[in-house]
Design a protein that fits this description.
Layout (H helix, E strand, L loop, with lengths): L7 E4 L10 H5 L8 H22 L5 H15 L8 H9 L7 H10 L3 E6 L3 H11 L7 E4 L10 H11 L6 E5 L2 H10 L2 E5 L15 E3 L12
Parallel strand pairs: 1-2, 1-4, 2-3, 4-5, 5-6
Helix pairs in contact: 2-3
Length: 225
Amino acid sequence: MTGHPLRVFVFDAYGTLFDVHAAVFRLGDRLGADLSAFSALWRNKQLEYSWVRTLSGRYRDFWNLTEEALDYCFSRFPEADRAARPALLDAYRRLDAYPEAKGELEAIRSQGHATAILSNGTETMLHQAVEAAGLETCLDAILSVDGLQRFKTVPETYALVLDRFAVAPENVSFQSSNGWDIAGATAFGFRTVWINRAGTPLEYPDLAPRHILPSLTGLSTLKET
């Protein structure tokens, strides 16, 4: 291996370890015909609200933004059954983990590396998701930006990893399915791996990831180049 030895593998939660679209598809018969559009809008607005809140200095935690984004979706999709709102939110608390997630986390830890989540989600949201997915024994830390009251990609959010593990940025491998998150982590100095599940084009070529994978499969066997 070349370069600095990695010590910590950090994962974004939503879209990287957990399938953000699982909640909608569990209740598909109550949400109308265009489930994919409903779910995509919910996710897009959730993220948009996090950026606007950070830039404007008017913080609301990620669970509140998740609720607000869902309410907007019901307004945009009047055929969806609003009575499904509590069930959708409950499903979001217990999203499915991607099938390869647990095996890759276990493989990374068996190599002597620490593993962690770094997420916009609140601590309560993250612990609920981790417990529901059975990933408790695969993670050394669950880090939420909530205490900072600012969302990624603010550099201070990535610094939470350095504070928790007492490492330098070059000792961290950061994995996310979100291109904007990869750009922020790359700018901060992490080695980054974009989990490009949707096969979308690279948006920030000046902040490109070290590696691109279509899923988490194979992450534990990547070289430190």
